[in-house]
Amino acid sequence: MAHIDAGKTTTTERMLYYSGRTDMLGEVMLGNTVTDFLQQERERGITICSAAVSFNWKEHRINLLDTPGHIDFTMEVEQSLGAVDGTVVILDGSAGVEAQTITVWSQADRHQLPRLVFVNKMDKETADFDACLVDLKQKLSTVPLPLQMPIKQSGKLVGVIDLLSSSQIIWDGQNKGRSYKAVPIADEYLHDTVQEKLYELIDLLSGLDDNLAQAIIEANSFENVKLNLVLDAIRNSTLKQQIVPVLLGSSYKNVGVQLLMDSVLNFLPAPSERNQIYDCFGSDFVGKVFKVTHDKQRGPISMIRAFRGTVKKGSKFITATGGSETVQRIYEPLADEYREIDAFGAGNIGLCAGPKATVTGDLVVANAAALKKALKRLSAASNSVEEESIDDELLLASKLGLQTTIPDAVYFCSIEPPSSGQQTALDNALREIQREDPSLRIRYDEVTGQTVLGGMGQLHIEIVKSRILTEYRIDADLGPLQIAYKETLEEPSRGQWTAEKEIAGSKQSVYMDMTIYPNETGEGSAERVVLDNSAEAQETLKLVRPRQMAFFRKGALGALQRGPKLGGQLANCTVKLHALTIGRGTADPFIMAAAAQCIGNILTNARCRLLEPDMFLEIVTPSEYLSAILADLNRRRARIEDVAPRGSVNKVVKVVAPLAELGDYSTVLRTISSGTASVSMEPNGHSPMNESDEATAMRRTLGLE
Ligand SMILES: Nc1nc2c(ncn2[C@@H]2O[C@H](COP(=O)(O)OP(=O)(O)OP(=O)(O)O)[C@@H](O)[C@H]2O)c(=O)[nH]1
Fold first, then answer.
1. Which atom of ligand 1 is nearest to the CA of 47?
2. pTM for the whole structure
3. ipTM above 0.95, yes or no
């Protein structure tokens, strides 16, 4: 993982090539890499979807997920992190720790993932390894453990000095970096410098690892400490996330990648060293769907990381959403190439064709009995009694802390097919893309009659449009991109509605009475309809058939998708139904329409308020720019949460600011801080607006400003 363009795809491509998995070296610039296989990725030179590849290296199997760097695709990164055991964070050696590096770093923190850092692009003239180490310390509060130093000849990177073996590793420029050799360090001054750095490294490790400390005491010097003790200390401290080993190179110039692969084996955990939370499954299969893709020939493909047990071709498993699923075929991961295998097991990744209803984020388990057994073991471990009624799978996911939160959309726009005849095809395409990417929201707006897409940013929505064009051959039209405001009520509002009509000679009539309440707690979702349980209300409500009530709910929930101010989703409120009388022979859709009209009518007369999407920002800046940055943030209606020192020269500002005010923020921050500050952003829910901000937002959205 990394900031955009740091070199993840280029590095992955080298790993595949050096491991012998591919016999051609692809380049991002030529649009022929293995992992950027979507047409949009190849055209734009960016990664949009995580891609899975696996290859063998020195008698080990490495499963690698190449993740996107752009903030609009954070959800992809999040899903991948739930499926891996360790991560390699790639830095651009000339840029150091950048905005999105900070975001992915905190995502990896949340998943408690051990990590390595690879400082890439060290061939660039402006690359500075030491400055990157300082950045890692100061911007990420981490303990970097440099294992290498760059070797440059006439300004060109030719190799690295490996501190642990105190040797120079030089790459042969001839065969795309396939061969390299270790050469002793002849220069005495350089030799001394390397020794000094090695002792610093051992000293740092000895403070973290008792075995190493003991060996140093016994040897009474750093000099005679055995290399395997140092390697063990690095591994143990990395697994405990006390340190981060740092390597360097230039993937593009084919320097350093093999040593990075060695370090993955040496220092990142094996599957058996993590995922103990799945022990409750014993040897039964449990895995996680970290991605769903649609292949034209093979249909939906679920990419699954197995944590325990094995899945065989032709076997079944169960999921949270789809009940039992059959695995018809299994493929090995190599991006969009499919190689069939018979089974895959714990630690590995398999691409399964057959499952129809799995969605990204699903936990999949061998069968219901295995799930029950696991729950029992978990309950026994925590001495708790579980409620029978709760969905087993959800309960398990919550116990294992595995629920995925799908971020709220922050932007939306309408999408229309070029002709009404293509509406169904467009709906199908959107449904398929949404299964792959749960952060894409799709809804139908009853009032405008349009399909509305919600997403994480402009790029996100543009990519969806171009995928619909290239993969489904539909040239859809997008409306203007707008901020996804939500709406809420300021006080309860009650209303009654009578609808009567004669349709095809049959009289339809409905009467209803309801109140919409704001949720005082600020929690709960808009999708809530409750029945008044007073005796008086129950008089009429008990006569309503469940099917009719279902149609009523559907109408009510649909109407709550569209607030009266800007058509934003109604949030934090509950509908309470006091009375519902339905005339004999009234059709169900008539009840649904009446419910929507009643809610629409109540909302038009209610006091509503806009809620705007906020972003959480973490800004790391040298102290001298702090006051200018704070002044600028104030102009953006930002709420400063914390300002704290990081290292001796930097400050970290944590702040929540409205998305509407952040359009140009990264550029302005660069200008204010002469390019030295960095910012990471992530969505941070919605918050109420005051009257004047709301009026401005409405004028802007309605195009009056
Ligand atoms: N000079 C130099 N350029 C590099 C190096 N590695 C990658 N690049 C170039 O940097 C650009 C981005 O590389 P990618 O591999 O696509 O980076 P990425 O991190 O996968 O990008 P996203 O997935 O889109 O975030 C491409 O033009 C690469 O050719 C390197 O070591 N040195």
1. 23
2. 0.72
3. yes
